[in-house]
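Example 3.2
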Amino acid sequence: MGIGDLEEDGEDAEAGPPQPHHLPGELTVSQAEQVLRYTPYGDHKQGISGTLFCTNFKVTFITPNRPVNKVSTQRNRLVGENDIVLNNIDTVYQVSHGRRKKLFPTSGILGHVKHLEIHCKDFRVHSFSFKFTQKNEAKQVVNAIVHHAFPTRLELLFAFDYAGDTTSTEVAPCVPRYKLVEDWETEVERLEAAGYKATLCNKAFRIASSLPECLVVPRSLDNAVIGEAAPQFVEYRIPVWSYTHPGSGASLVRMADTIPEGAHRDVEEKMLSAIALSHISLKRPVVHDLSKLPVTLSDIQTSHEKLRELCMPSSRKEMLSLDANWFSRLEDTRWISVVAICLQSALRVVEDLIDKMLTVVIKEESCSDLAPVISCLVQLLVDPACRSLHGFQALVEREWVALGHHFADRCGLVTSPDTEQCPVFLLFLDCCWQLLQQFPSAFQFSEMYLAVLWDTCVPRSL
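Structure, written as tokens:
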């Protein structure tokens, strides 16, 4: 960077080499100078020289002939174009003589690292060379990347270190967190759901740890009945209200499976009767059992891994080969088929909800995976408020966050062999993208917004 550039950017020429932009609570762990960054699938004969940093939040590459890592305003306000968020790293490879060696946090680097490939969950590949880097610097920065990219405990995630600025005076619509009774009552009133009530039956999470303290349940149920029925459902996840269509009076309710060996085998029937009493015409609800869909969590995970392999060829030659029959290979992943299954299931729910004016109970084992996918798609189809930016944010906060989707497990935020990973939220975003392509004028947000959400919530492969 020349003197003129420094003056233009307001930098001091004596300030030393450029440093990465830090978020509050972010610290540089290690760095290596004279690192070469190669263009993905290039010939690796020429690279851009710069400094590679590893912080407790990201890996970032800064070149001396470019502006200091400024935050991008187009895609993500937290990271720049040369940043790799640690939680977005899927695998790290040490490359030698064209062969890849996968690196693990427990293995460590003993010898000299000459070439490094970072494969990300968002299908990007970053390639670095340490040909001109001091051996100890290269080893330290690689070890830091591998160590911090694969945390073994939830408390090691950067979210626990982040110390955001709470003094901002920026005025923005407040997205309800659905922790207060008032948040749920506002939604019940908006949708004219007279047969349902907000209750603190789960206060201090005494019933279910994966449900919010405040829930919306059929008005005929009292807290004692709810507390008695909860142990008969998987993870104590009792039936909870999601939506009521003001025109038909029919509602959308989410319910977990009952435990087969439960003492009260008639508890599900009692819950369905209470839901029927909440209907304006006392109609019995129809149950959509998601276990009968021709797709499982394992199928979704396998399909996503095939999609990842298709989008991340190992060489330029392989990339050109895949491009020749891209669409047939995409079909072979079955990812598009899974998206279609979800959209078709949501449409069947809408038909019962609107055309037949029937309350629909979405039933799933724990009611926290495909249930929020279908529930959100239904509300996007029938409720224009959910297609606004603020409404969509509230929808995700309510159906995914408050009602207990297991993000840490499904997205592989923590390295553990005991959790089942599955990109359920990504599947939902892809379904939204399909709707957005068909009805672009019906949404207040664009595909760029969905892409940023995708990039911030991509699961690690097994």
